Amino acid sequence: MSVSAHSAEHAETAKSAVDFSQDSALKTTALEKLNSVFGYQSFRKGQQEVIHAALNKQDSLVVMATGNGKSLCYQIPALCFSGLTLVISPLISLMKDQVDQLLTNGIAADYLNSTQTFEQQQQVQSMAMSGQLKLLYLSPEKITTQSFFHFISQCQVSFIAIDEAHCISQWGHDFRPEYTQLGGLKSCFPDAPIMALTATADETTRRDILFHLKLQTPHIYIGSFDRPNIRYMLVEKFKPMEQLCQFVLGQKGKSGIVYCNSRNKVERIAESLRKKGVAAQAYHAGMDNALRERVQRDFQRDNVQVVVATIAFGMGINKSNVRFVAHFDLPRSIEAYYQETGRAGRDDLPAEAVLFYEPADYAWLQKMLLEKPETPQRQIEQHKLQAIGEFAESQTCRRLVLLNYFGEMRQTPCNNCDICLDPPKKYNGLIDAQKVMSAVYRVGQRFGVHYVVAVLRGLQNQKIKDNGHDTLSVFGIGKDRSKEYWQSVIRQLVHLGLLRQVVDQYNSTLQLTENAKPVLRGECELELATPRISSVITRTAEKSAVVNYDKDLFARLRFLRKQIADKENIPPYIVFNDATLQEMAQYQPTTAREMLQINGVGSIKLERFAQPFMTIIREHKAAHRTDAPAFELH
To answer: Which intervals hold domain Helicase C-terminal (predicted)?
Structure first.
């Protein structure tokens, strides 16, 4: 099955569309689990069809943005199947986090990894073999051992979920060789459907996932990559440490992550933030394991406001109330940037992603890359580095650049990024666009940016002469503009979805998209940003979020949540996340029936945690005679 690029609109009807009307029992069971166990009133876009495909024992590939509910896509089928669900994840810390949340919801789950003693692993295996577990989390390394197959052959495996599935592809931004061994799972468990999940996979990566995992007639869901609650901002570096500290202080105690590309910078930034009074800690691979675990635990439990981490090492956290992610250095790919910024705003509340940038960052990464041996893998990394460089230097809506990179072709600006909030000057770019697209067409759509620009500018180089392109009508029609000018125009046309860059292991070529036809024919207007040959500092005005809940009550509920979490020895967001507390502060439920209508309050959490929250809400209403909105069922 071909995996073509999908827009969000296509996702609903794309590949292997599922008709719930054919099996209402499955639909009812899945929805009942969503309501009673997880406390949500309805499925998010895409979840229902993915879950139904799994329950029909169909393999699937799920590409769904972070925060859109990927985990529920396999957790709900796991509760519906009679046997054990295996969840393969590359991040040990994320395994523990997921298991803690499942246990809090009353679900029998555990994990096997290198942090456990032999006796602990034996106990987990015994529970799995006796049917006491519904979900078992494992690392890909664990799956490939002979001892594992001896153990798992004694379990009733009903379903397999492979998280972070992009790791199986060399085109994926975090390729892990051990993932390539997972292709044997299909032959070992022929009756168990396999679900591969990722938040970041372009078309090439998706093809690799299907091929290497040997998925059979899979249901494919490509959701929207858009995270509208995240504001994407770029700030040109001037006094970077001072700028970063000023930004973090402006967050007024909110949780955040700062990424940078060296351990030394991690330590220096964490120290600088601490000197400014910020509760910040460093986190990188050179630290002692116990210290790293303590830092992550303190961050998850809101004892630390900011964690400063290396980009390469990552954090693998599932913390829902991260309000900002700042990149002090340029990431190595758009996939990495998207994944890392996606750790902000997982609860759908407003969040910020700020990239501090200077062209020297790109030059340094390029230099480091060129020092590697020339291999197909290096070619892939060069393409990805070029794409993130173009994102940083873009003069079009940053969200459009991200979405079009992942094949979700859009042209409407988001009004929630630095470019939209502080727009560059615009001009009628129709003639420039026609010149570029005509050149791309005349050279046969077989050459890359530099070649097309050389033709436009009329350069007399040997390759152009050998191809006879110095005789084309488009040769030299852009000689009055600089190379950088035309590169900027081409980048904008790519970002607007009018041109696409097709890259294989050795070449990059520009091709026209279907959207280019009306522009070429002059049937529409086209505004472009006046090319900025050098980076310009952008300042954005703050947009106030609509506040429709009682902030004083929300603060009291947060304080209570922290007390409960500390007593239970779990992160606060596992009790209830910020979005759930905001709903409580808005609708102010005081009975069990009303509380169950709050998203994120299931039957187990109602019984375990809800009573003191209802008590505080009653006290607050009595003291303030609040005009909260009348409670309505969702």
So the answer is: 240-388
